[in-house]
Amino acid sequence: MDCMNAKYVSQKISKTRWRPVSAASLQQPDVFATGSWDNENNKLCLWGVGENAGCPMEDELEGDPQLLCECEHSGDVLDLQFLDQDRLVTASSTGSVTVYKVHPANQTLSVAHVWDQAHHYERANAPCTGVACNSPELVSVGEDGRVVLYKADQRGVVRVIENADSSTIHGVTFLRTTEVLTVNSIGQLKLWDFRQQGNEPAQILAITGDRVPLHCVGRHPNQQHIVATGGQDGMLCIWDVRQGNMPFSLMEAHSAEMWEVHFHPTNPDHLFTCSEDGSLLHWETSSGSDAPLFLQGRNSSTMSRSATAPAAGNQSLISAWLNGDSSKGRLETTHMLPSHTLSVNSLDVLGQCLVCGTDGEAVYVHKRVRVNVRPKENGYSLVEGESGR
């Protein structure tokens, strides 16, 4: 928490994302985007940290993020994703999906294309609640229950699943090039295969019992069949879409709605969640040891396994998130923010860098997130000061 910088931005922040860096470079991310909501005039902003903010590298932890550029955004920014290093996409409460071009030379943003009324009711716009990108494709979902597929360089729409859901779709992620997974307001996950015709999902998964709305979904970066979801009850669920239609595990994560969940993109034994309760949690599994995952973390979060165990096979290929026998391992959780604040609406993590945005009109940046593990004789220890590759 000593490395966490707070920047007060006079806007309620709904979404924040790091600009991607080249996979071949050793560079840590140094630019992030924010979108606002519930303000008189909402904005899309780019911020710089470290050298991009005009700070020498040795002072990068002490310097606040610096505003590089901003533009007004029509409606609330309900989702925000980078398509690539030079383009980002927003989902608006007006129902539109917009692609913005980033101009690094003069640090400006410009609108490349807008799909107006991408989501709508019969006589009114419907909020676009989520977007996912797999360049050049992108997909959007909304309160109207539609799933829309686009190509960033085409003005038309590639595919529309008109009646994908009778309830609000809150989130979407690509599993593969032709498959996306959505979560909705009645606690269901639906798998959509764009190779199939019609409006029927290829698979439906759900938690039995109360239909608690799911607000977010995150995909494991290496094993696409593993996803994490969070919802209205603050529970974190881990799913294996290959194994039945129930979650593999459920964890008591937050005391209020969970807004986002993200696996670390290169160290997926680490996972991050944020909530309406004002907390931001870092979850770490005990991957690679003989002891499987599971039990109690430092903030008294608990885990319980479902009855479904992972299929037999090469154990080295089974993610730590799906290891069995809950009595032998552990899952540690750490609070990332120095104290509880207003709702933490969004987070993103890349390399050793984490950023989150809140309803308290603040952005928090952490540049030394500990995401590496090194084996020791008596278990595992975290390694600080190395990049997450």
Please explain how this structure is put together.
- It is found in: Nucleus.
- Keywords: Nucleus, Repeat, WD repeat.
- WD repeats lie at residues 207-249, 251-293.
- This is Nucleoporin Nup43.
- The protein is mainly β and 389 residues long.
- It is built from no helices and 31 strands.
- The chain has strands at residues 4-8, 13-18, 31-36, 43-48, 66-72, 77-84, 87-92, 97-103, 108-115, 128-134, 137-142, 147-151, 157-161, 169-176, 179-184, 188-193, 203-206, 214-219, 226-231, 235-240, 249-252, 258-263, 270-275, 280-285, 303-305, 331-335, 344-350, 353-358, 362-366, 372-376, 379-383.
- A hairpin with a 2-residue loop joins strand 30 and strand 31 (379-383).
- The protein is globular, with a radius of gyration of 20 Å.
Which helices and strands occur, and which strands form pairs?
Layout: E1 4-8, E2 13-18, E3 31-36, E4 43-48, E5 66-72, E6 77-84, E7 87-92, E8 97-103, E9 108-115, E10 128-134, E11 137-142, E12 147-151, E13 157-161, E14 169-176, E15 179-184, E16 188-193, E17 203-206, E18 214-219, E19 226-231, E20 235-240, E21 249-252, E22 258-263, E23 270-275, E24 280-285, E25 303-305, E26 331-335, E27 344-350, E28 353-358, E29 362-366, E30 372-376, E31 379-383
Antiparallel strand pairs: 1-29, 2-3, 3-4, 4-5, 6-7, 7-8, 8-9, 10-11, 11-12, 12-13, 14-15, 15-16, 16-17, 18-19, 19-20, 20-21, 21-25, 22-23, 23-24, 24-26, 27-28, 28-29, 30-31
Protein name: Nucleoporin Nup43
Subcellular location: Nucleus
WD repeats: 207-249, 251-293
